[in-house]
Amino acid sequence: MPQTEPALVIFGASEIAEVAHFYYTHDSSRRIVSFTVDGAFLKESTLCGLPVVPFEELEARFPPSEHDAFVALSYAKLNTVRADKVAQLKARGYRLATYVSSKATTWPGLSIGENCFVLEDNTIQPFVRIDNNVTLWSGNHIGHHAHIGDNCFITSHVVISGGVRVGENSFIGVNATIRDHVKIGHHSVLGAGSLILQDVADFAVYTQPAAELSRVPSNRLRKI
Question: Full-prediction pTM beyond 0.90?
Answer without folding.
Answer: yes
